[in-house]
Amino acid sequence: MQAPRTLPTPSAPPTLRRGRLSDRVRLVRNVLPPLIVLVVGLVEFLISRLPSAVSEQWAHLLFYGLVGPAVTFYSVEWIAEGTRARERAERELRDLYQQLSVSHARLQAVQELMRDLGGAPDMGAVLEVAARGAVRVTGATHATLSVPGGLSGSARGDTLLSGPSAALHPLTVRLPGGGDLVLHFDTPPSPDTRELAQALASEVTTGIEAARQRTLDLMTLYSVDQSIRAERNMRRLLSRVTRTMAERVGADARAAYLSDQDGVLRLEYAQDHLGEAPGGMPAPPFAAEVAASTLPLITDGVAAGEVFPEVSSVLGLSMRDEEGLVGVLVFGHRDTGAFDDARLPLLALMAGQATLAVRNARAYLYSEELAIGDERARIAREIHDGVAQSLAFAALKLDVVARQLHTDPVRAEAEVKDASALLREQIREVRRSIFALRPIDLERYGLLETARRYVMDFGEQNGVRAALDVSGEIHLSPGDEAVIFRILQESLNNIAKHARAREVNVTLHGGARVTLRVQDDGVGFDPEQISGRVSSAGGLGLMQMRERIDARGGQYRVLSAPGHGTVIEAEMPQA
Fold first, then answer.
1. Predicted pLDDT of residue 328
2. Exposed / middle / buried, residue 567 (Cβ in 10 Å: 0-12, 13-18, 19+)
3. How many other CB atoms are there within 10 angstroms of residue 469's CB atom?
4. DSSP symbol at 12
5. How far apart are CA 332 and CA 299, in angstroms?
6. What is the dihedral of CA 93, 98, 102, 104, to 10 degrees?
């Protein structure tokens, strides 16, 4: 809770700093009478020495008629000035007491609000209590409190208006944890009221966060905790999450669309009365609307039929976290208006749990790939900085030795040349490994130009005839281009390592689907025996490549047999 504003301490009036009123009265009472006697005696003595009676008369008149009253007047005025200063100080003290009383009352109201927030059973009750407390503390006519996820609460004070009107003065305060507190006043809010609203927002945020944490803990204990465990199979994970939520609302169909690295929503899992549907398809328009909104959406009629066949009502929930959109969950029902009475706040919280589950699953799925990528980069650096330079130095040294030998120079020279040739061959092999491991700037050149350069360099590095044939129009998202290129890269790397091929033909064809075909005339292999093996260069392996294509709604095939070469085909839908 923010500390209440420190009220200014009134400074003492200048007259009070010179002396208190009681001191002045005591001084006049004790000093003035003897002083008057002394002054009168001195004046009478001086008047008695005047030369004539007329002079004495005028001197008495001047002293007793003018000086005496003047002295009395200024003495009384001096005392009166102290009295007025005391009255001013008392007024300032009364004003300060009133301000402290108001501050104490507000502080007590804030404490009562925090106590009520702590006793609220769920997030909806927390928002309602917070809105009522804001009205009570600030004196607003209306208060509305909203937080991310579509939850809100409102309250009104002593007013006949059922809702805020244009004549009121709104004050909007951002909550530190996200959301807004909107207050409406009859008169423009003062700076003190604005500061109080800021302090109140901090207290409300604390109560909201406490309630949210309690709710998340309960949800974790209520079967959804099984869905937040990292798992390799994303479809199985989404099946459990959506099944639990569908049971809550009585839905007949369910689907999950996840946002890929390009921000495109793609179907990851779906099930209706016909069974499970294949993934990889683009999201329907309603799912895009849900993704653009932070609130749950419900649609009926034609729009619902575009999501699920034979469905009359569809509910959509966005999955978001601090990093942005993760995906969209949609649920369908045969009856129109089936989701009108659904507990949307609870479902929104469950969608948040599903967001965490998807993030964990993706982290698990990508961890192996990241580790392989780091290992590839490390090996490339080691080969380039160590082995290649050492072999080159050895070759140069053997060349020098060959020219310096005198004993059986013909044979020695021949042996040294053979060693030099062997070393140079090793250098070429190391360079081929570096070529297979080096990063490719796909974003800079695009898929076609990068593939052309890679195929050409591959042929030169490995001493094989390599050709690329491109036909049709190819329009893929950056993420899909990366998948196609990684499959091309891995296929060529496997050819260099194992095929002993003399010719490689690569084709890229664009149509309704983009098709990549890599064919070699090498020794071939049995796909059933090594389909799950990862290549020695740190590649993905056949199984991982198949999983990448399947996740994008495509197909992957390997045709090979010992002694008959290999054909690799990958198809992916156009963007």
1. 94
2. middle
3. 11
4. P
5. 10
6. 50
Give the burial string for 346-376 (b: 16+ CB within 10 Å, else e): bbbbbbbbbbbbbbbbeeebeeeeeebeeeb
Query: Within 13 Å and on the Cβ side, how many CA atoms surround 381?
Result: 5
- Using alpha carbons, list the distances in angstroms from residue 86 to 9, 73, 90, 165: 16, 20, 6, 48
Dihedral sign for Cα atoms in the order 334, 338, 343, 345: positive
Question: Confidence class of residue 433 from pLDDT cuts 50, 70 and 90?
Answer: low
Q: Are strands 151-156 and 142-147 parallel, antiparallel or unpaired?
A: antiparallel
Distances (CA, A) of 115 to 110, 120, 277, 357, 520: 9, 9, 50, 34, 75
What is the pTM for the complete model shown?
Answer: 0.40
Handedness of CA 136, 137, 140, 142 (dihedral sign): negative
Phi and psi angles of residue 255, each rounded to the nearest 5 degrees, phi first: -155, 155
The residue with tokens 């609130």 is 295
- Are the CB atoms for 269 and 361 separated by under 8 Å? no
* 8 A C-beta contact, residue 135 and residue 108: no
Question: pLDDT tens digits, residue range 110-166?
Answer: 677 777 766 676 777 878 888 888 888 888 888 888 888 777 888 888 776 777 777
Phi-psi region of 524 (alpha: psi -120 to 50; beta: other; left: phi over 0): left
Between 540 and 276, whose confidence is greater?
276
Treating both helix axes as pointing N-terminal to C-terminal, what angle do 388-404 and 409-437 enclose, rounded to 10 degrees? 170
416, 401 contact by CB (below 8 A): yes
> Burial level of 489, CB count in 10 A (0-12/13-18/19+)?
buried
SS3 category, 509? strand
CA dist., res. 82 & res. 89, Å (int) = 11
DSSP state of 277: -
Of all residues in the chain, what percent are helix, strand and coil, respectively (each to 5)?
55, 20, 25
CA–chain centroid gap for 57, Å, is 100
Q: How many CB atoms lie within 10 A of CB 192?
A: 13
User: CA-to-CA distance for 281 and 274, rounded, in angstroms?
Assistant: 17
Instruction: Please state, in angstroms and rounded to a whole number, the distance separating the CA atoms of residues 238 and 350.
Output: 12
How far is Cα 276 from Cα 267, in angstroms, rounded to an integer? 12
Which DSSP symbol is given to 498?
I
Phi, psi of 166 (to 5 degrees): -70, -20
Give dist(CA 553, CA 381) in Å, integer: 36
Residue from 230, 264, 172 nearest 362 by CA: 230
Give the DSSP letter string of 311-354: -SEEEEEEEEETTEEEEEEEEEESSTTTTTT--HHHHHHHHHHH
Give per-residue pLDDT as tens, 302-350.
Answer: 888 889 988 889 999 999 888 889 999 999 999 888 888 777 877 887 7
Name which of 502, 507, 497 is nearest 452 in CA terms. 507
